Amino acid sequence: MTYDRRSLMQGLAGLSALAPFLSLERAMAAVAPPSVEEAMMRAAEAHGALMAVPGMRMHAGETVSMLLYPGFTAMDLVGPHYFFASMMGAKVELVTNQPTLEPVKSDLGLAIAPTARLNDAFETPTILFVPGGGAGTVAAMDDPATIDYLRDRGSRATYVTSVCTGSLLLGMAGLLKGRKATSHWAGRSVLPEFGATPVDARVVTDGNVITGAGVSAGLDFGLAMVEKLRGRPYAQALMLQAEYSPEPPFKGGTPAKTDPAIAKAMAGMMGPVEARARAVARKVKT
Question: Which has more pLDDT, 112 or 16?
Answer without folding.
Answer: 112
